[in-house]
Amino acid sequence: MAENAKKETKVICFTNNKGGSGKSTTCANLGYELAALGKRVLLVDGDMQLNLSLSFFDEEQVLEIAESGKTLYDAIRAKKDLSDYVVEAPYANLDLIPSSILMSQIEYDLFSMMQRELVLKKCLKNIRRSGVYDYILIDAPPTLGTWVVNVLCASDEIVIPVEATPWGLFGLANMFDFLGKLEDMTDAEVLGVLITKVDERKNYYRQTREILGEYEEIRVFDTFIHVDSAIEWSQDASKPVSVYKRSTRSALEYKKLAEEVMKYGGR
Questions:
Q1: Per-residue pLDDT reduced to its tens digit, 141-158
Q2: 79, part of any domain
Q3: Dist. CA 188–CA 53, nearest whole Å
Q4: Which pTM does this prediction carry?
């Protein structure tokens, strides 16, 4: 335990104000691959859609957990230590703090709180200090409100998934503008932009990469994620894609992404 206490827990959030970019999918599969590489990982489902929770538990289990009063929403609303809200995922080295559909009203609940932008950071404080986890990965909703500010203030690094489609880059400038306005509130830095839903038969990937290249000092991950039906089937089965079908292209890409994150993040 003394050895664990010396570890520095890295907190990475996944955010994009455009829905459908692959945030939850990336958070879930990257988390699994990091765990498979021997890292202790805690996933935090910060979205009312529960997609991160549904990536590891079926709908009946997720709804049962949501009604137990042991969700992220319950902890944030009561400003409780999140250590008591951790659920073991069905895979080694991997835990989850589940979400609730009540997260839809989290903005309202935060409005009356003192230092409302720092509630999540304070709730995570003991988990970070414990050194139990190498990584805490937070799935943020596709908004730019106070709750996302909470997520950013609690994070060290940011991953921005962007889909390689005609509308994939829509709003990205707003995302960077939003991050720029928070420079005095958070030390979180963009670890990288991840291009998702790539179909190399079309030109959107090349166009997306060229446009992203115009953003100075913003890393674009070498790894990118292809369109792959196995991802959808794995989600339907509430399993990471590597568990559903390890030989599929996307499974290999998420493993490569985990290795790239470890290299850039120094873990």
A1: 998 899 999 999 999 999
A2: yes
A3: 24
A4: 0.94
